[in-house]
Each structure stands twice: as C-alpha cells, then as structure tokens.
Amino acid sequence: MTRRDAALLSLTLAGMYCLFTALTLWPETMKQLASETPRADRVLAMMPMLLLTCSGAALIQSRRKISTWIFNANPSLDSTAVADAGDMRLLTVRIAGLLLLAAFARSLQTFAADRISPIILGAAAGLCLFAARPLVRLLFAAGPGAGKSERYRDNFAFALGVVGAFYVARFSGAAVEGVLKRTWLESSAAFAMFAVGLALLLGRRAGAAA
Predict the structure, then answer these.
(1) How far, in Å, are 9, 31, 40, 67 from residue 153 at the CA level?
(2) N or C: which end of the chain has fewer CB within 10 A?
(3) pLDDT, tens digit (0-9, with 9 covering 90-100), for 144-155
C-alpha cells in the first residue's frame, strides 16, 4: 500500500464513520427537538449531529485536498512511496491507542455506575500508547519498524491529524453545551478531549517527530 492509498483510504473511512455516528444520533436529536425544552437547548441538541455530518461529507468529498494539505504534496503523485510493514504495524497500534482514549473519556461519564469499563479502556489505551512495540510483537507475531524514517513520520503526522479532527468533531458539541450550561465538572471529559483533538491537529508534525 502506498502513502497515497493509505491517506485516501483513511480519510474515506473516517468520513464514513462520522456519517454513521451522525445517523445513530438522529433518533435522540429528533426527540430533543420535539420536546418542550428551551430553543437554545434544542439548537445545542442538533450541534453534534450537524458537526459530524458536515465533517463526514467534507472528509469524503475533499479527501484529496485534505491529503495535500497534510502532506504538503499532492498524494496523487506519490505512487511509489511504499510504507514499511513494520512501521505500519506500529502506527496501527498507536492510533488504536488514541481512539481507545476517546472511548475511555466517554466512559468516565458513567464511572459511578460502571467502573469496570473505564479501567479496561484506560489500560488498553495505555498499553497501545506506551507499550506499543511489545504489543505489536504479541498481536502480529512480527516486529515493529524503527519508527524513525521520514516516511513513517509523514504517515504518523497524517494519522494524528485525522484523529485530532475526529476528536474535535466528536467532542465539540458536548464542550459547547458544557460552557453554555456551565456544567464544568460533568463536561470535563469533553473539554479535555476537545483540547487533545486541537493539540493533535495543530501539533501533528511535532508529535510525529517526538
């Protein structure tokens, strides 16, 4: 798989995931709109679904432009940059850790009723992020790449940008609702993940080089 293929496939899958998540929010959003709650609350109820829909459509329709912006080069011209298999295994585990981190943050909202899920998700995210190399050997029965090549850093920066954009789209609605309703403690996980998303999106190259 070339870098071009990986970029376009990842953006397409991310867009489809955003649209799927927006579709799952449809029943609850319609219920909120039909309720007798204040208009401001009904507008806020629509924000997550609208943001996910717009993000998903933008990722799918503009995936080539987004890839060009992330890589600073047209991915259509990058047909020979084949990614190392070991680097791709390492990259997959690290990105899985970032996605598990989002699930861990959401699970903290129900920590009082369910303490097992946050512990399991937090441990899984920690293993993927801080013990990625041993985990790669365990899962794939093969060694990880060195993770130091320029190509790997480009791929990692791209993946961090996609995950950061996903975090921003996923948690922006809850963060805005928390600000307007002043539910600082209840929305602390959304604030934290929204900030992490911005940091990943804006600092993706520095993060990949670290």
Answers:
(1) 18, 45, 43, 15
(2) C
(3) 776 667 777 777
